[in-house]
Amino acid sequence: MAYSHKNSKGQTYYLHSKNVTLRGGRKQMIYYFARTVKPGALDALPAGKSVVENKRTGLPLVKGKAK
Q1: Single pTM value for the model
Q2: What residues contact residue 47 under an 8 Å CB cut-off, 6+ apart?
Q3: For residue 37, what are the CA distances in angstroms to 18, 21, 27, 58?
Q4: CA-to-CA dists, residue 47 to 3, 6, 39, angstroms
Q5: 46 vs 43: CA distance, rounded Å
Q6: Neighbour tally for 4: CB within 10 Å
Q7: What's the burial of 13, exposed, middle or buried (CB within 10 Å: 0-12/13-18/19+)?
Q8: In this predicted structure, what is the pLDDT of residue 66?
Q9: Dihedral of CA 15/32/5/35: which sign?
Q10: What is the number of structural domains in the chain?
Q11: 1 pLDDT tier (thresholds 50, 70, 90)
Q12: Rounded Cα gap, residues 18 and 25, in angstroms
């Protein structure tokens, strides 16, 4: 079962991840939320990460711990 988050507006989003290549050639794992379960869905929130919500749109975001 994919990790889900219900925002303040009552909409449910599912956590996904994807490996991308940045302009400099470095590879990085990105995390994003979608309204439907797609390939790349994660079962749990990665360690050291938390979910915050955009105040204006209600879109959930994955945030790492502060430096």
Answers
A1: 0.86
A2: none
A3: 14, 23, 24, 19
A4: 13, 20, 21
A5: 9
A6: 13
A7: buried
A8: 58
A9: negative
A10: 1
A11: confident
A12: 16
The per-residue pLDDT for range 13-67, each reduced to its tens digit, is: 999 999 999 999 999 999 999 999 999 999 999 999 999 999 999 999 999 875 5
Residue carrying the six token digits 């959930």: 60
Q: Give 49's strand partners.
A: 64
For β-strands 49-53 and 27-34, DSSP reports them as unpaired
Residue type at position 59: L
CB 18 within 8 A of CB 29: yes
pLDDT value of residue 65: 74
